Amino acid sequence: MVVLTPQSEFGVAPPPTTPYSIVSNIPLWENSRKFRDGDMSVAAKLKHIYPRFGPTHYVAQLGMEIAKRLDLEGKGIFLYLNPDMWAYTARHATTKSHRAEHVLKPEDLTFRCVDIAGHRVYAVLYDVRNTFGVMESWGNPGLGLSIRGAEQLLEGIDHLWEVPLSGDNKETPPEPTWTPESDAHDGLRERISELVNRAPRDPGTFVKSRPHDVFLYPTGMAAVHHSTRTVLKYRPGTLVILGVVFHSTHHHLLEESPHGFKHIGKVDEEAMDELERWLDEQKAEDKPVSYVLVEFPGNPTLDTPDVARVKRLSEKHNFVLVVDDTIASFANVDLLDQCDILLTSLTKSFSGLANVMGGSIVLSPSSPHYTSLSPLFTSTHRNELFARDAKVLLSNSNDFLNRAAILNRNAAAVAAFLSERMAGDPDCPVVKVRHPSLLPSRPLYDAFKRAPTPQLPEPAYGCLFTLDFENEDAASTFHDNCGFYPSPHLGAHVTIQLAYNMVVWGRRPEERARFRELGIKEEAVRISVGLEAAEDIVDTIRYALDKTVALKKDGYKKD
Question: What GO terms in the biological process aspect are recorded for it (predicted)?
Fold first, then answer.
């Protein structure tokens, strides 16, 4: 029996540890709670963390250098290639309904622009005491400088010069330069196009995508951000989320919905009926719907929506359907003909090594909106993915299908073990295993599996599942005795666990109550299997469950 344990210290990424690592090690349930609540004693120990939580490594170094050269040393600083982030940050940080007690005044933000090594960089500076008021403007749109991008700019820091501003600087920033594309960008578009065309469910009707249908972004959330802005230009209207989706996506769309926001929190048949009735009401009242976004499957519920029915509704009501396939991945499922925009976080299993960020959208050539969306995306897209990041994404994805097969097998082994354990152990503290293969919505997932191929003989359900426990004592005991890396992220080379529901939905009481009604309970642990041996992952879970059962019998009295 092999029980896995983290091979790094508190706050440090698993091997191979580099400045670009995006997984951390945040041991103990209580530390996750403290991190959620902004406890600086935990944050101070983090050498590595998911980059959308804040500037790290070379990004932090570059920020300090720029602030010093602007005579603003000691200020917090966010850095972007996109000038729109000035107005975006000003709007979001100063809106009380979004920031509540952390709302800022306009004068709390300073905007400056510099040129470094041929790149125009837009800086947002703030008093570090106001970090909670601005941090989501860094995290949700996902447009902050990447670690490798900042490393590149640091190499030219001695040639920095400040670009003079005129007028209301946040509304009229200097013209951007963006960052040049490379052969790796072309290679990524070709690879993604090949993968979404691979092994279609119905070769007779499938319409292939081409590389020019693929658009690249610096993060998955940047793909969400730009999709939202572009579709709203094409079709202004209400933004709709169906099901429980990634928390940053939810919060971002909630705040980026000038014409209205609608959330239908479940994806079962009753929820689908509710969506259809609401759409009919909107049509009767002549209120347009811009787009509906679904995840396939949802995060962290792992429920699969009836995407075929949503597609039919999109054709009836003429809204744009955006499907995020990040968890299933386009290795396993074929969804291009069931949506208008296919959105993927390339940071996750496509990359797989937890050392680079990226995102993509693929426009569906069979979409009735394609002839309008294609020229609109093409004319408005500007490159914000640094060449160094594109090169790593391309290299990492060389063995994507091989890794997808391992992740599928490992998750299936865990799901089988947990099902057997729950059936055979009356003291098992797990009350539900959320994995697409074990949920009532499995047939909706299976309908869109790709055809088997020698490269991926058994397309399956991806790397992610969630364990619901009988109470928080059981969840925290399991978490603290399970030897996976406690960290945000999924789809990495190592197995990761996270008290996801508690961390992302537990801070605001109204959100906690709302999402609890949708089955998102704090007494849960989300696990993303890695590439370790399946038996080692299972043995590690078995060990943690045994410890939890033993402590359960002792009333959860901890040493």
Answer: transsulfuration
d(CA 461, CA 449): 9
Pairing of β 341-345 and β 320-324:
parallel
> Which amino acid does the sequence have at 127?
D
> Which CATH fold topology does 400-553 show?
Aspartate Aminotransferase, domain 1 (3.90.1150)
The pLDDT tens digits of the residues spanning 303-313 come to: 999 999 999 99
What's residue 169's pLDDT? 63
What mean pLDDT is reported for the chain?
96
Please choose, from the candidates 503, 406, 416, 411, the residue with its C-alpha nearest in 3D space to the C-alpha of residue 465.
Answer: 411
**pTM higher than 0.90:** yes
Q: Between 521 and 171, where is the model more confident?
A: 521
Q: Per-residue DSSP letters for 309-373? A: HHHHHHHHH--EEEEE-TTT-TTTB--GGG-SEEEEETTTTTT-SSS---EEEEE-TT-TTHHHH
Q: If you ran DSSP here, which 8-state letter would residue 17 be given? A: P
Closest by CA position to 487, among listed 6, 2, 1:
6
CA distances to 80, 180, 189 from 394, in Å: 23, 16, 10
Fold held by 183-397: Aspartate Aminotransferase; domain 2 (3.40.640)
What is the tens place of the pLDDT at every residue in 322-348? 999 999 999 999 999 999 999 999 999
